[in-house]
Amino acid sequence: MRFVPILMFHRVADIPGDRNAMPPKMFEARMEYLASHNFHTIGFDDLLGGAPLPERPVLLTFDDGCRDVFTEAMPCMLRHGMTATVFMVSGAVGKTNAWETDKAPSPMMSAEELQNWHRHGFTVGAHTVDHKPLNPLLSDAEIERELTESRRALEEILNAPVDFFAYPYGIFDARAKRLTAKHFRAAAAITDNVPLAHFDRYAILRIAVSSKESLNEFKLKVSSFAPLLVAGKRIEADVRMLRKRIFGR
Ligand SMILES: [Zn+2]
User: Which of 138, 149, 154, 190 has the most beta carbons within 10 angstroms of its beta carbon?
Assistant: First the structure.
């Protein structure tokens, strides 16, 4: 399978110091770059469908579903003829991001906003009910509840199937993957645990985009060098761990 850069954003908002919140002007510049360089946004349906992909495909995703994704990011993407997937925390629809206890609470997309997003050709995926990591602390039944209940709640709002899932914090193991495969067509991860040598539809590589990066770093992330970038970061982390083990620092 050909490499398609899949980017992970969170918010489009001016919040100094928050790497997950990209100021609207900065987001606009990145969309402008993609549009003027002949990139075409695709969805997970296209990625898995087997039909030929457009020239320079890119897949944009937003985790959690903060309201600014609807008010700031969506109009900008529409202006540039782009689409995206939002992975919505189903229990937070119309509420706030209560799980981010170290940050000021922010409003999340409402049911009407999700419907509007979907009507404009954008995709909604699930991201658990309360943004719980699918780690060994949860029982099989608890994991399945996060999966099935988030899917059900979003399908009820959209009156359409919700086929894709993203692991909160990018955390998953073999069990979480197996259970996710029972309920979704594919699942997006970040970089941890993701195989780089082959495509695993339940551990899809996504590259996090940060508000602290320059436009040049962004360009690299949508280039064919992106997998090398991830591999390089992994080697760096391994070397750091090895050094700590050997030298204790
Ligand atoms: Zn999340």
Answer: 154
